[in-house]
Design brief:
The chain is mainly beta. The protein contains six helices and 26 strands. The chain has a 16-stranded antiparallel beta sheet that branches. The chain is globular. The chain starts with 8 loop residues before the first helix and ends with a strand.
């Protein structure tokens, strides 16, 4: 939807040429009126998705084993998906800066059939086994069968061991296969590798277009996408060393192949010879865009440990306390940006689009009495080696980041609750980063809070 800020390309150019518009300063009343006359407003693109499905499920107990009843569940599904991606050419064709001037409406549809089954097998009173299988048939990307096996063993009331192994399948969405192409700007400021390699203008270059600025990339759907496939394994334990303390620890490993995504722009610009054919040029040799459609990039391999701890105190004169921490330690995260390409290690460093934190956790300490409660919470992430742009620069290390919040609640009655709190209790600024993958500079808005300390008061009434 264009609600403001876009004007007809031809109208804007004509206004500059005839002197009505001043591109270097504020507009006078005539310039403002002219901009209003060539403004573009209205719906420029929309999408409609419809799904028609029929499914059937049934379950029953089969026989009784020493640990309990053997139960089975079966199901089947038939589904039709259809999506229309519409571009209003009357508006989009007049606004080159929107990235949609060359976009065309597209649509896609497919039929999906699936059958699945699951067995719950209580082998013994302390051992349960779950076995499942699902078969999917997509008429546009193929068929697959994926099993899952899980085991749960509780040798004592305070110890429970568990493990599972499975394969997975994710078909590309209709959007990923059929999205209209759009010509957008890169997130990072980059150099055209032909006309301004390493920031040095070559003959015919326009430094205001080719050097240290956002370049164009051509993005959209790819009908040749194939599904992602994965393998997952986990093993762990839940231990209660005391009645008010629970500890859970799980090791997990995931491998994924044919990951669907876009080749990161820093990879494209940082390996020009490998991706030369993707750098599309205009007839005069000026840059048009870098071709970067959705594609199957390669493999991802990652493993690590999830840790959870919960402790409570109860029936104390001054109230009850509970402490909870949920954290993840990542040992390995490596991926390929193309099939059979080199693996890129991402733990503890910013690579391409994001960092993988070696350790992160959420911690909360809560006190409760009859009518009052208070919670102190912490969100923590370890530091990492910062993004390194295509141009050689010194690496910067982003420091660890922790955000503390404090809140208190008073239950005035069964229907009225009042809450006051402080976000970012210690007024912590985000650590500096030179990342350029988002449009914010100096910090990463995906993992930090730039707002500083904030106070809030909230009331809720139940009727």
């Amino acid at each position: 939807m264009f609600a403001g800020g876009y004007v007809q390309d031809s109208g804007f150019a004509a206004g500059v040429l005839n002197g009505i518009l001043n591109p270097f300063g504020l507009q006078n009343s005539a310039g403002k009126a002219y901009l209003e006359s060539v403004a573009l407003r209205g719906k420029v693109q929309d999408a409609k998705a419809t799904t028609t499905a029929f499914d059937l499920k049934a379950s029953r107990e089969l026989i009784r084993l020493s640990g309990g009843p053997l139960a089975m569940a079966l199901g089947a599904e038939i589904r039709h998906e259809k999506s229309d991606f519409n571009v209003n050419r009357d508006i989009a064709g007049q606004a080159g800066s929107s990235g949609l001037s060359g976009s065309l409406s597209k649509n896609g549809s497919r039929n999906i059939k699936a059958v699945f089954g699951e067995l719950s097998i209580p082998v013994m009173k302390k051992v349960d086994v779950q076995a499942a299988m699902r078969y999917d048939d997509y008429d546009d990307v193929g068929r697959t069968a994926n099993p899952k096996v899980g085991v749960r063993w509780q040798p004592s009331p305070r110890i429970m061991l568990r493990g599972s192994a499975s394969t997975g399948f994710r078909a590309p969405t209709l959007f990923e296969r059929n999205a209209p192409q759009s010509r957008n700007e890169t997130n990072n400021s980059l150099n055209d590798p032909i006309l301004c390699p390493s920031g040095v203008p070559q003959p015919g270059a326009n430094p205001l277009r080719d050097c240290g600025l956002q370049q164009f990339k051509l993005q959209g759907g790819n009908p040749d996408l194939t599904p992602e496939k994965s393998k997952t394994f986990s093993v762990g334990a839940v231990i209660e060393p005391a009645s008010n303390l629970t500890v859970a620890i799980d090791y997990w490993a995931i491998s994924l192949k044919d990951k669907i995504g876009n080749v990161p722009e820093l990879t494209l610009f940082g390996n020009f010879e490998r991706y030369r054919a993707r750098f599309l040029r205009n007839p005069d040799g000026s840059p048009f865009a870098v071709l970067d459609l959705y594609e199957n990039l390669g493999k991802v391999r990652t493993n690590g440990v999830d840790l959870s701890l919960t402790g409570t105190t109860r029936h104390m004169d001054y109230g009850d306390f509970s402490l909870k921490i949920d954290g993840t330690w990542v040992h390995k995260y490596e991926y390929q940006n193309e099939r059979d390409g080199d693996y890129i290690q991402n733990v503890g460093r910013y690579a391409d689009l994001f960092p993988i934190f070696r350790w992160k956790h959420n911690l909360s300490l809560t006190w409760r009495s009859t009518t009052w409660s208070a919670t102190l919470s912490q969100n923590f992430r370890t530091g990492y080696v910062d993004q390194n742009q295509v141009d050689p620069i010194l690496f910067n290390r982003v420091s660890s980041y922790q955000l503390w919040n404090l809140s208190g609640t008073y239950a005035a009655s069964k229907s009225l609750t009042l809450t006051a709190g402080i976000k970012n209790l210690f007024d912590r600024d985000p650590p500096f980063t030179n990342q350029g993958s988002t449009f914010q500079q100096g910090y990463d808005p995906r993992f930090t809070d730039p707002g500083g300390r904030a106070l809030y008061l909230r009331g809720s009434v139940d009727f």
